[in-house]
Every structure is written in structure tokens, then in C-alpha cells.
Amino acid sequence: MSLTVPPSLLHAAETGPVDDEAFVACVRDSLPYAWQTVSRVAADLESSDAQFADNVVPPPTEAERGQLLRALASDAIRSSLERHFGVKLAFQNCHRVAAFRPSAVDSDTYRRFISMRGQLLNQSPELRDC
Fold it and tell me: What Pfam families does the database record attribute to this sequence (predicted)?
């Protein structure tokens, strides 16, 4: 299961639209490693003039790796994180998540990061089974 949904949030979903901040809080509480990783790259980006900031450190355990995969594989979770942090997320391997400024999405840097070539160049034997 990806998220631990509080009964009040489940009830809200059953009866109508869900508040974005309530959903983000559910993600934060359910997937703390993913939340910390995305928070960190978003903060790194905000504190720099770079077009993007990324995480290159693999998760310490398979449980944390699973959190990151679940967060970034879900359109709803990923887009809510992007709205919350005001970034565009990009993802390679099982751990390399990057936060891009929305203005950089049409840049060569972003296109290189999300390209097939970028994916292949970011491979290594130790990450093969991640």
C-alpha cells in the first residue's frame, strides 16, 4: 500500500473533492523518506541559482527505495508534490530525483536529464537491481 489514509481523508474522498494540502500531508506522513528527499532537492534548488538540484545518494534500505518509487510513480502523488514545492520533478533509476524550476522545463538541461541518453549514462553495475 502506498499511503496510510486517515479515516477523515478517506471519508472526504468518498464524498467529494479532496483538499490538496490534506493529500500532501497524507503523503508526507505515509512516505517520510520520499518526502525528505523531495523536500531536500526542492530546498537545494530554492537556495541556488541553478536550473535544477538532484539527489544522487541511493536510499539506505529497500523500504526507503520503495517509498521513493511509489511517490514518483504515482501521477497523483508526484503532481501534488510538484504543486506543493513549486517544482517539476524528474526521476532516473531508483533514487536520482531532481527538482527543476518550472521555467527550466523547456531547457536543454531538462531535456538532457529526461532523455534516453541521460538515462543510459546514469547507469552503473551497482544500481542494476535497484
Answer: KH_NucS_shadow
Distance, C-alpha 97 to centroid of its chain: 6
Strands 88-92 and 52-54 turn out to be unpaired
Torsion, Cα 31 33 37 43, to 10 degrees, reads 80
What gap in Å lies between CA 70 and CA 66, rounded to an integer?
Answer: 6
Give φ, ψ of 49 to 5 degrees.
-100, 5
Q: What is the pLDDT of residues 23-52, one digit of tens each?
A: 999 999 999 999 999 999 999 999 999 999
Q: What is the 3-state secondary structure (H, E, C) of 62-92?
A: HHHHHHHHHHHHCHHHHHHHHHHHCCEEEEE
Runs of H (alpha helix) within 1-130: 7-15, 20-30, 32-46, 62-73, 75-85, 108-114, 116-121
- Tell me, yes or no, if the pTM score tops 0.70: yes
User: Which of the pair, 8 or 128, is modelled with greater confidence?
Assistant: 8
